[in-house]
Structure formats: C-alpha cells, structure tokens
Amino acid sequence: MAADLALRPDRHYRCRRFLMCYGTEMTSNAILAWQQKRSVLRHYIAPGKPQQNGFVESFNGRFRDECLNEHLFRNIANARTVIDAWRPDYNAVKPHTSLNGMTPEAFAQHAKTAYSNAQTLT
Predict the structure, then answer these.
(1) Which residue, 45, 72, 95, 100, shows the most beta carbons closer than 10 Å to its own?
(2) Could you give the maximum distance between any two Cα atoms of the chain, in Å?
(3) What's the CA gap between 96 and 122, in Å, rounded?
C-alpha cells in the first residue's frame, strides 16, 4: 500500500491523517516509513467502533449488498472477474448521495477541474 501511495503522482492532495483499523502489530514497516517521511499522523480506529470510519463502513455495506451477496464464487479467479465487472458500475454509473448525486468518476473530474482552475488563479 505504501508503494501504491508513493507511486501516485496524479494525486494533488496532501494526506494529513491516515486511518488504520489495526494497532501497531498489524502495521508494516513500509507504511510507518511512508507516514514518517511525509509527516502524516496515524489515527487508529478503536476496536468495536466502526462508526469512526463511516466512509469505509458505508462502502463495505454497499459492496456486500450489491456484489458479494448477489454471487456465489466458484474460486478466486471467478470472484475477481465478478468484482472487476461490478467496479465500473459502482464508479461510473451509479450516483452516490454522498457526492450530491454524482458518480465517483464525475466527482473526481469535477474536483480535478476545480483544482486546476484554482491553480491558474495563483
């Protein structure tokens, strides 16, 4: 995960806090190094308190309801195929109330345009 975060030059935001569901025993050295290098604070989610990370819990519920509960997977390859087919529908077709009725792709494009316009003003 740290490698993925470090190799994403298309990201124009600076992470200030990194939410983690597990304590230090489940934290890799790569994540710790990534956080320290970028001065990102760790914020642990207390056990039994999923509401402390509501966005992930909301996604997990939707993913479970719309994808996992709808299919019986024969093997890991079948699961990957089904999930890969579900992902574009979730990201590009279905509007999200948390994004004012926009799809995640449309919202990302809107944010990118707004960021670009703000950069040209400075």
Answers:
(1) 45
(2) 54
(3) 32
